[in-house]
Here is the input.
Amino acid sequence: MVKINENFLKLKKNYLFIDIAKRLKAYKAENPDKELIRMGIGDVTLPLAPVVVDAMKKAADEMGVKETFRGYEDSGAGYDFLRNAVSGYYKSFGVNVSPDDIRINDGAKADCGNIVDIFGDGNTVLITDPAYPVYVDSNAMSGRKIVFANSNEANGFAAMPDYNVHADIIYLCSPNNPTGSVYTKTQLKEWVDYALKNEAVIIFDSAYEAFISDPKLPRSIYAVEGAEKCAVEMCSLSKTAGFTGTRCGYTVIPSTLVVTASDGSEVKLADLWGRRQGSKFNGVSYPVQRAAEAVFSPEGQKQTREAIAYYKGNAKIMAETLDELGIKYTGGINSPYIWLKCPDGMNGWDFFDYLLKEIQVVGTPGDGFGPNGVGWFRLTAFGSRENTVEAMRRFKELLKK
Amino acid sequence: MVKINENFLKLKKNYLFIDIAKRLKAYKAENPDKELIRMGIGDVTLPLAPVVVDAMKKAADEMGVKETFRGYEDSGAGYDFLRNAVSGYYKSFGVNVSPDDIRINDGAKADCGNIVDIFGDGNTVLITDPAYPVYVDSNAMSGRKIVFANSNEANGFAAMPDYNVHADIIYLCSPNNPTGSVYTKTQLKEWVDYALKNEAVIIFDSAYEAFISDPKLPRSIYAVEGAEKCAVEMCSLSKTAGFTGTRCGYTVIPSTLVVTASDGSEVKLADLWGRRQGSKFNGVSYPVQRAAEAVFSPEGQKQTREAIAYYKGNAKIMAETLDELGIKYTGGINSPYIWLKCPDGMNGWDFFDYLLKEIQVVGTPGDGFGPNGVGWFRLTAFGSRENTVEAMRRFKELLKK
Here is the structure.
C-alpha cells in the first residue's frame, strides 16, 4: 500500500496566503458592495517596465521563427546572457559574484523550498522567527528538526546568533519578510562567523535587496567576508521588477562553498544543487529570461527603480501615519514592509478581522509568520499611492485615541 | 556540521543528456569543421505556432499596463482559462478530466521529480526499464527502494505487471520514452488492476500522447476504468506544441484518488500535492499560460498538429530505412522515438561514438536509460526533414552489409 509522507499531516492545512484569500472570498461574498484595500499579500501592483515587455515580445517573435527558435537549454542553469547580467547587477553595488555561480530559476520560492533536497534529514535547521512560511514548511515536510532564533521587539526584529544553540542550516532574510528589519554588515558578519564556526550553511533570502537605499547596508550576504564559504543566496525579480506573475529569480552558490560528506570527501554544494536541478528542473522560459535580462539593462534599471521609488514613497506615508498614531513598527525605510504592533493587545488575526470589518483594509496577521509574530501585523507598500493614502486616512480615523 | 543528502553521491554524476552534451562539445572542439546531425536529445526544432506567439505577445502587453497587469496567482494551480482549455482538450479525445483536478506546471519534468515529496520514503517504487532517467534519479535522491519491470525485445519493450512483485508507486510512460512502444487499452487496464490490487499509485507520463494517431490506442490513462482511483497523469506541451524552451505542462490528480494514512485517515492525494506546490511553487508565468491556452484553440490545434505530422513524417522515413537495413526497432508510428537494436552486438555508447565519428549523426545510447537499454539506441523524429533524410542516407551507406 502506498505510504504518504506523513510529515504533511503535521503541517498547517493551508499556506498562509491561501488562508487569507479564503477569508477575503468569504467576506466579499457577504459584502459584495464593499471595496477592499489590499495591503496584505506582498504582491506588486505596478506593471512591467516597457523595456521588459518589449524584450519579452521580441523573444516571443524569435520563438516563432525556425532560425531563432530555442528549445531546451543545455544546462537548465540559465542562459549566459542572463547570468552575465545578474553578475553585472551585483557588480553595480560592489559585490563580486561569478556568472558560473548563478543559476536562474522561476522565482526564489521554488528554490527556497527545493534546496532542502540536497541536505540530509539529520540536520538541525535554524530559522529566525517570525519568518516567511516556506522556510518552516519545506523543512517540516521533510521532518527536519527546526530551532528558532527569536526576532522580537527587544532586538528590533533582527535575531542574532546564540553560540549555545547549534545549527547546521540557517535561514536568514534581509530586508526581512515580514518584519522589514535590515541586517547591518556587522550583524551579518556575526551570522557568517557563527555559520563558519558551526560548519553550517546559510540560506540567505535577499528578495527585497532592491529596497535598500542606505549605501551602508549590505544588499547581498557576499558583501560580508567569509560568506563565500558558507552562504547560498536566493533572490528574485518579483519585487525588484514586478515579476510576481512573470516568474524569474536566481540562486547563487559559490564554487568555494564546500561541504564534507560522511566518507570524508569534499563536495561542492553547487554540484549537488546542479545535479538536483538537472533531474527535477528544465530551465526558465526563454522569453521570460530575455525579459529578466532587460531589467538589468541601463534603461531597465532606470524604469524599475522608478517603481521601487514609488513603493518606497508609499512606505514613507505609512510610516508617518504610524508615527503620528504612536504605533510601534519596524521596516518601512529600506524595505517594502511595515511590521506594526497591533493596538490594544489584539492578536494578528483579531486585528485582521477588525481592519477588514471596520475599514476594509487587508493586511497580514503576524501570527501567520510564527510565534514571535503574535500581536504584530504586516502591511506592504506595494499598493497604489491612492489606496495607500486612503488606507492610512482610514487607519487614522479608526485608531486615533 | 551540515550533512548533505548522501543519496546524491550514489547517483551517476551527470544527468544523461548533460553527459551527451559534454561528449559533443569535446568532439566539436576537435572537429570544428564537422557538421553534426542531432537526433539525440528529444528536443523539437520547429518554431512555436503563430497563434501561440501572438497570444504570448498579447499577454506581455497586458503585463505592461496597470489595469491588466497580473501578479501572483491566488492558487498557483494555473489560471482557470488554461485549466478549462486542458480539460476541453481531454474531452476532444473522449476523456473526462475536471478542470479542478488539473494543476498547470512549468513542464512535466519538474512535477515528475517533485511529486516524490508527498510520498513516504518507505515505498517500493516500480519503474519500467529502460526509462526516462528522472524517475529513477528522483527516487534514488530520496533513497527509496526501486524495483524494475523489464521492457525488452521479447515483450516489445512494453513491460507488464508481475503479481509476484509488490510495488507502491509505479511509473509508466506511454508512448514510451525511450522505446516508442505504446500500451494498448487492455495492457493499461492490466496495470490499473495491478495498482488497485496493490493499493499503489501510478504516475503516468503521457508527454507523447499527441503522437498517437491510432484511435484505438489510449492517449490518457483515464481512458481506462479504475484509473481515476489510482493514477496521476503528467503531460507537457513540450512535444505537443514545441514548448521545450517555453515551459508549460500539467498534472492531473483526480479528487477520487484517496490514500489511507497510518492513522487510518483518508487523504486526497491532490490535497497533499496542492500543499506541496503551495509552499514550493508559485505558478507559471502568465504570458506562458496564455501561450499554452492558444495551443488548445481550434486554430492552435490546427497549427500544432501540422508540426506533429511533420515529425511523424520523419519517423516514417527512419522506420523505412531501418526496415530496409533489416535493423530491429520499436516505435516510430505513434511515437516520435525510434528504438533500435545496435548492429554487430555493439553497446549503446560504442554505437554512439561510432555514429558520431563515422557519419556525425548524434543519437542517444540506450544504456543511459537502464540495463535493458544496453545494446539499444534511441533516435528521435524531431529533426528537420532535410537532416532526417541525410542522416538516413548516411545510415544506409554505413550500415548496409
In short: The first helix of chain A runs from residue 7 to 10. The two ends of chain A are 62 Å apart (CA to CA). The first strand of chain A starts at residue 37 and ends at 38. The mean pLDDT of chain A is 96.
